[in-house]
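Two folds, back to back.
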Amino acid sequence: MKYLLFLFAIPLFAQTNAQIAFVATSPSGVACNSRASLRLYVPSGVLFSCQSGHYAAFSTSSATGTVTSLTASSPLVATPSPIIATGTYSCPTCTITVFSGTLTLNTTLIASAACSTAQTVTATGTATTDTIIATFNADVTGITGYVPLTTGMLTIIVYPTVNTINAKVCNNTSASITPSAVTLNVRVAR
């Protein structure tokens, strides 16, 4: 018997490289986290998912009985397809949020044609290959340094390092600027 797993019902698949592990020992009650792979208990064919921090049998009215093979639906990819004995699911187009928070920028003087030192926020799990999304948490077009003027305004350069989000404020104008306080909403995506 072949079952198509309806993946929208399993929040686990909102991440990159989610996997299904085939296990010979029941994982029922074993601690897990939201990034844990699914477990297929081979002797019984019962599929387990991470629920409230522990593995529990996954069931819906359309997914009961013994699982003999698994297939993937977009955006997931099963290798091999279908998975009968061993295999993995991956999602090459899915993203996960590694970190979400705020970064308040310094209000120290920035000389003409210069940048501030990097201002940072710890974002555990961040890699240099991750994408940083940064937006102001309010309208800053009336705040010193960010007012749109013909003489220029400050520019913010945001980049990742291991476990850290970095932001440098650079002055493109011909005069020094002491910016007023602004806060960035930041998110690390993978």
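---
second:
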Amino acid sequence: MNLQKQLEFVITDFCNLNCSLCSQGIPLQKEKKLISLEDLERMAKFIKPFEFQHIKISGGEPTMHPQFSQICGCLRKLFPAYNYYLATNGFMLEKFVNDVKIFDVIILSEYPGRNEKLFEKSVALNLPNLIAQKKEEYKEILDVYEEKNLNETNIYNRCPYAETMKVVQNRIYPCCNLFGQALRQNIPLDKISVVFDENWRENITKLDVDVFCKRCFVKVPSRAQSFIQKSRKKTVSWLIKKNPALANKCNRWIKNLRQKIKNG
């Protein structure tokens, strides 16, 4: 199991929304917790500088974290990387408009029937590093209860989501979807994650997650599709870094084209 390109920290399990199809399984969590600034300072000792290309902050809703401003101020020092990302639904984004300047990219998501007004208000902030994503196909894309790979093999190595490791509470997962899947399918956490300590690299290579990938809602691509998707992802990442505004226009154009094709 190779080390991934992105390390994502779920700094809070709390969210202002309650999406039934949340890939992180927030509505199903019985013991919601935070990763404090002190926790991050401790975890930073277990990560080498630039070991991951990207550092991502998410949740829950990360702006709900009581130490969000302090975390923004220390993030680059604690975890040296090439790029920094924030995933948010826009809650309290206006309050932290100066703090979020440290992120190369802010991924703002709209969920129909849940945060439209908040989304538009956040877009109106005109943040140069903001990428706005409207989830028009929200219910179709995130049907997290589907099991799409039951007849597949070698799934993990072909999955684009496997490029992101995720830290939830005090454990690290080799894929960003595994924690939510564990909640939905009652999977023991020690089968799909390891304690985030000085031994995490050695321990995480001992995990065999392919059996759980079979029951994942993300359909694993063919080898050819996997190559195309990874190439496209690299291009998009480059474009977002160079010109977020142009990336936004391209994103809207692609979605409009998909809608026209769908409508015939």
